[in-house]
Amino acid sequence: MEYNTQKTQLHMPEYGRIIQQLVERCKELPTKEERNEMAMAIIDFMGQRNPQLRDEENYKHKLWDHLYILADYDLDVDSPYPFPTMEQLAEKPKRMEYPKLQGDFKFYGKSILQLIEKAIELETGDEKEALIEVIANNMKKSYNVYNKEHVTDDVIFRHLKELSENRLDLTGIDSLEKSKIYYTNNNNNRSNNNNRNSGNNNNKNQPNKRRHNNNHKNRK
After folding, report:
1. CA distance linking residue 74 with residue 177, whole number of Å
2. Within a 13 Å sphere around the CA of 215, how many CA atoms are in the beta-carbon half?
3. What predicted TM-score, i.e. pTM, was given to this entire model?
4. Which of 168, 167, 187, 158 is nearest to 130 (CA)?
5. For the chain, which residues make up each domain, given as ranges?
6. For 26-57, what is each residue's pLDDT tens digit?
7. Is 138 exposed, middle or buried, given 0-12, 13-18 or 19+ CB atoms closer than 10 A?
8. Which run of H or of E encompasses 171?
């Protein structure tokens, strides 16, 4: 009885023993033409066994790399791609650089910094003022969620000024509640609430109309 421990080591177990044996057979073929023909057949078979690779970019290149790994980096065939070396595959990936936020303001997020840069680029006018007010309102929401405490507007103004390197300043506004954005949103909310209340009042009056009609019929 032959045990797996007595067989050749699987370099990529996800392809199974059959493909490993085919690769070993390919290495033993005497001519390069025969090895090329069998290598192409193995590549097709590997693609059928792993159809999920077809959704990836350059999946053919990956299959040829896998074939070379299965051959233990020793396969004399004509590949359409350069074969990788053991050193290249053993090389650790470069450390990813995470976005850095200024000081202790990480809870504001990268999107706030991007909006600040956009506001700085705009020319002075209503559009720039509106964007600055939107930024300040969102900063206040983020601060309250992260710190779970109420924050005064002057703190938000100070943070905005620091994050923008003194290029955006809201110190001329007493509070966010007095800004155009806040006032507009509140007016919209009030109008929506009034519409709902008027609709509810109309619904409440309908039963009274029905009772009045019934009483009128009974008198007749």
Report:
1. 72
2. 6
3. 0.44
4. 168
5. 4-90, 97-185
6. 999 999 999 999 999 999 998 888 887 777 77
7. middle
8. none
